[in-house]
Amino acid sequence: MTVRIAQISDTHLSEAKPFFNTNFARLGEALHEAAVDLVINSGDISLNGADLDADLRRAHGLHEALDLDWLAIPGNHDIGDSQGIGSKQPIDEDRRARYRAVFGEDYWAHDIPGWRLIGVNAQLAGSDLSADADQSNFVRQAASTANGRSIALFVHKPLYDASPAETALDGRFLPPAARGGLLSTLSGATLRLVACGHVHQFRATDGGGWRDVWAPSTAFILPDFFQPTYGPKVVGYVDHAFHANGTVESQLVRPPGMTLHNIETIPEAYGDLRAHKH
Ligand SMILES: [Fe+2]
Ligand SMILES: [Fe+2]
User: Fold this and answer.
1) Residue 154 domain flag
2) How far is residue 118's CA from residue 106's CA, in Å, rounded to a whole number?
């Protein structure tokens, strides 16, 4: 038995700035054609849900309209960014409450044959919100009761570039303290896959005992002057074939008709990149 899950990411959907909503419509057609069993959005669902309820509602409505089973975890643009990295939109109680009012739980577990999928709120990890401890307890419990199932972790930001020992503190990867906390809650579990988004590039690497897969954005890529190249700068999604024997195959899919937007050419979305950080 194999369950096919489409990991979509960084859809950046909006009510007032719908630059990327057309790509989402093309994506939806491709997901129906592929007859996937479940869709998981790994965050940055909305363009600016961190400040605008309308973007959260529009993004949620477009997912409902897919008419497919779906789950989501929040990205920095949905619920605010990690604290302590200088973001103008850090996660706080209000942002988290507004996200949950539209999307429901910001962390969850979902079982499929042979696997337990755990979705977490990356920006909550290591924050001063009391729910950070609740999430840690939830993940620890979900991991320790997996009863032989393989674990797949869905998290908006990559845990690291090349190694869990990295100490860089920036917006691109999970802050080291958050990463350490998250991995400690999973110690002893059979972690086989860490699936993330956020960088808007595709990458699949092995190391640390599990496979790290970065889903590309469905919306746009970032220019080279702003962001190094880790893998293909493309738009599309990742098809994960989860087998009941605890193995998984993950493939990049680039549906026809999706436009490869470069955010450098759309300053109306997030401003001039040469002056701001994504
Ligand atoms: Fe993003
Ligand atoms: Fe992000």
Assistant:
1) yes
2) 11
